[in-house]
Amino acid sequence: MLKINDLHASVEDKEILKGINLSVNAGEVHAIMGPNGSGKSTLASVIAGKEEFEVTKGNVVLNGEDLEDDSPEDRAHKGVFLSFQYPVEIPGVSVTNFMKTAINESRKAKGLEDMPAKEMLKMIREKAEMLEIDRKFLSRSLNEGFSGGEKKRNEIFQMAMLEPKLAILDETDSGLDIDALRIVANGVNKLKSKDNAVIVITHYQRLLEYIVPDFVHVLHNGKIVKSGGKELALELEAKGYDWIKNEAVV
Amino acid sequence: MAYTEEELKKELETKEYEYGFYTDIESDTFPKGLNEDIVRAISKKKNEPQWMTDWRLEAFRIWEKMEEPEWANVHYEKPDFQAISYYSAPKAADPNKSLEDVDPDLLEMYRKLGISVDEQKKLQNVAVDIVVDSVSVATTFKKTLAEKGIIFMPISEAIQEHPELVKKYMGTIVPKTDNFYAALNSAVFTDGSFCYIPKGVRCPMELSTYFRINEGGTGQFERTLVIADESSYVSYLEGCTAPSRDENQLHAAVVELIALDDAEIKYSTVQNWYPGNAEGKGGVYNFVTKRGLCEKNAKISWTQVETGSAVTWKYPSCILKGNNSVGEFYSIAVTNNYQQADTGTKMIHLGKNTRSTIISKGISAGKSQNSYRGLVQIGARAANARNFSQCDSLLMGNECGAHTFPYIEVKNKSAQIEHEATTSKIGEDQIFYCNQRGIETEKAIALIVNGFSKEVLNKLPMEFAVEAQKLLEISLEGSVG
Does the ipTM surpass 0.90? Predict the structure, then answer.
């Protein structure tokens, strides 16, 4: 599904990603871990097509298509979803209105008519229920005055609504208490299927107890320095990142 | 009119000012220049009684001694008042004829403006008065309204048919001496709308006036007078457009509202005068004086969506004279390219327990400058007066400006005044967030701007709200990216 080949990316001439190689197949969950500043969030932004980052070498291929020339919205229409570490506020725009616009824009890109209101309502109801979201929440302005947990839950709600092929969860666990974490993780697990893939970016092993990865990669200094199975996450938890850093130097 | 995505898409493809057509109608235009003879000639053209002619001449003499104000935060080349023609009328228009007799070119023009003077408006329950250049060319629904005793007609007709009402109220809220443009308007106003709602009557439909400047080198000086008698209610809409022209056109209107005891007037404006092109050439100078008076328990609510004009100078105000009266001002002002707007309101609290609310939303893009200027004045006898003001500015790009000039004058200790102000910028992060959800940039901006303006859009009558929303989107096209 996703193939990243020797990806180099910089921001303001500072190279952050220094040759990433990653292959993700449909039905898989990959975890990307690593210390602060290792390039995790940059990798997520580059896959989503954020313009501030310049790809200097290598490429990102989704289902056989090089995404190089695709705008962020093109990529979204092709099924890339990013759950933001810091979701932005859009005052005066309700969660429902935002979702309606997003879904219909994606449909328009595919040459489809707008989703009928009835269908949209049904979908909203189902997904909100799945994520234990109060209906009142949906009429509130997007992320405005939301608690950290609400913001993250809202990201996963959007993921549920947009049904992406590739979902990247950037530090979705940060700012969540244990109950919210459980709800969010359950949501992700329910959305997981053999046709889509999930990349979980996290500092800690905690989230991975709920969303169990097939592969764990450690990112350090813009490169994947170690890959393994889910047990690698436990090892990192126990030993910290220092041993990886030392290993990388050697 | 159902408004579909498809229509929106079509709108978005039109990058230019969409009302910028010029209709070739034969018109009767006065020579350029202004002097007492011109003022007399206007009055004669309108067959006005002597008192009206005298009133105009007095205003002209006052105006001659006045200086054009310079305190507003706008910079423009002052109009040459001797280079303007003060009267222009489409030749075929005759207010006494029925709609069927209206020049087909005029009707075609209304169609382009999206004003249908026929069935459609009837279904929407909106009575329309249309003013092209200097004269009113069509007023619909007169009969239906007359059954309730409501008078809705061009002011030129009202001067003939209801002189007692015009004489009693005109110039009482905005006197001839009020300011430079108001004095000019008083001398040379050519038409506008007049509306009277009798005691206890709730006007059954929206009353609407469309103003359009068509002829080049002319100015439009319309005068609107709305009187809501005791315990009556009226909702009044005003729309404005002009063709795209290289030269600047002048629009100096006066609007006076009178809400007697327990009456309510809701006055909504969607102003879309030609803003000039992307280089700042051309566009309408909009120098308008709007003011309303509230007697006991009365309420006046101004709602405005200002997207047009090269220069705007406008402060719809409320004099809260009666005890327990209420004034409201809801405004969205959009400036793009080289537009300049200095707009706001004055809330003059004179009566006891008077309340006012000001919600102002300024959106600036391009190289434009957008200023909010507002005065909240609490008189010595206005015990327990309350005001709440909120001024929010939204900036797009790095070359525009937003300014807030709040003035507060309180002479009574029991007053409660709140003022909130925010300034925000449409951030790249917001745009990227929308993009990532599959929403393209233009659409994302429309979404953000609509969200920002929602509190004010919600105050507009339904039909207007949709139009206003579309206008906001069109006005801001191409302003980011």
Answer: yes
